[in-house]
Amino acid sequence: MPDLSGIVKAYDIRGVVGEQLDVALVRDFGAAFALLIKPEAPAVVIGHDMRDSSPELSSAFADGVTSQGLDVVSIGLASTDQLYFASGSLNLPGAMFTASHNPAKYNGIKMCRAGASPVGQDTGLAEIRDTVEQGVPAFEGQRGSVSERDVLSDYAAYLRNLVDLSGSRPLKVVVDAGNGMGGHTVPTVFEGLPIDVVPMYFELDGTFPNHEANPLDPANIVDLQAKVREVGADAGLAFDGDADRCFVVDERGEPVSPSAITALVAVRELAKEPGGTVIHNLITSKGVPEIVAEHGGKPVRTRVGHSFIKAEMARTGAIFGGEHSAHYYFRDFWRADTGMLAALHVLAALGEQNGPLSALTQDFSRYAASGEINSTVSDQVARMLAVKDAYAGKSGVEIDELDGLTVQLPGGAWFNLRPSNTEPLLRLNVEAADRAAVEALTAEVLALVRA
Questions:
Q1: What are the residue boundaries of the Alpha-D-phosphohexomutase alpha/beta/alpha domain, all occurrences included (predicted)?
Q2: What percent of the chain has pLDDT over 90?
């Protein structure tokens, strides 16, 4: 019996092609997924990114699905949020082949039920793993069929219908697709809008020849920042490899915090639905719930991770959710994450007024933050306990353990320390009133973590 625990993660399947993932195994994953969703749906929609291995692996998965008697609707090259659109609009379960920003040798599978409802460890992924490990039972009935469907133009039209840019002033926007799927979706989504797109690295290339397709790493937005300044753009956008995350820089080339984007989009969504609920994970800036409340909304705090965000959105009927990793979730997009829709909101807000993006986002950026800092440790539990013991019992200190360890200090500063699920790492996020306070608190906590 194979052990698949190394590649079946909390939210998806991901591994090195040829070593951990191959055609035969992916075919079994397809058959197991079909068995999981067969009572609910007659077909599965499948999309894939631009990696060299993606077409073959997605075909193998389709072969597994059809071997269990279900049909396949193939949408071909797609961003992850384009696959979610297909799942939502066609009301079919879906599978997306991508390893997001991981290096070229990796690939993976993100799966969802009809309506883009996530499939994670607790919602079917563990069952899929068990089925494959134990051997997928053969199906004696008629095989399913495979059809092809192009949904790119429908996806683009749907997004443009959700955000009205017709009244926007003309904007010049640099877009760095990182040789990922943004190069496939941006030209169609932005067609006909009052936006002059300056493209960077739109050529689809799963080897990522220019830089890693992870815009949260400052090294990967250096080219974008330089180009924004060079051409005098109003803004810059950077997408990750599968284009479900979007990172924003202002007209000076300065990064705009994803927390500020969360607050900005939340205010726009609350203007459409006053009193609505907005989800934010616990490492977003405390400015997010403050701003949501000030605009009459109901902020709800969750753990980090899309399955928690989506579950809480479903429970509360939330209109929007944001994570500090630049994932943005919309009720009007089947509660799925789409960086493209968040980007359109930012550009609409910018185009509705005459000031620069730096001035617009300043109102949503209230505090200084460290960004996520990783520390390799030999014993996660011991280091977490050491940090907890150092702060527990201090006057005015509040501690909660919703996700890792969150410590609120007198005066408003706070930090969160979380263990990685997949690596021997502790992840630290710190926020305080100013940069000096952030640096001091960061040094204090890291001294405990790395002792």
A1: 8-134, 154-253, 261-366
A2: 94
**For the chain, which domains are there?**
13-150 (3.40.120.10), 154-256 (3.40.120.10), 258-340 (3.40.120.10), 368-449 (3.30.310.50)
**Rounded-to-integer distance, Cα 416 and Cα 432, Å:** 12
| 100 classed as catalytic | yes
| Pair 80, 48: CB distance under 8 Å | no
| pLDDT per residue as tens digits for the range 187-213 | 999 999 999 999 999 999 999 999 999
Average of per-residue pLDDT across 271-275: 98
Q: What is the CA radius of gyration of the chain?
A: 22
Catalytic option among 100, 168, 325, 365? 100
In terms of Cα–Cα distance, which of 206, 202, 181 is closest to 51? Answer: 206
Closest CA to 114 of 99, 97, 95: 95
Q: Which two tokens stand for residue 342?
A: 């968040």
Tokens of 387: 């940090």
**49-87 confidence digits (pLDDT tens):** 999 999 999 999 999 999 999 999 999 999 999 999 999
Answer yes or no: are the C-beta atoms of 48 and 58 closer than 8 Å.
yes
Q: CA 172 to CA 200: how far, in whole Å?
A: 13
Report which of 122, 141, 110, 139 is spatially closest to residue 45, judged by C-alpha positions: 110
Q: What is the pLDDT of residues 8-48, one digit of tens each?
A: 998 899 999 999 999 999 999 999 999 999 999 999 999 99
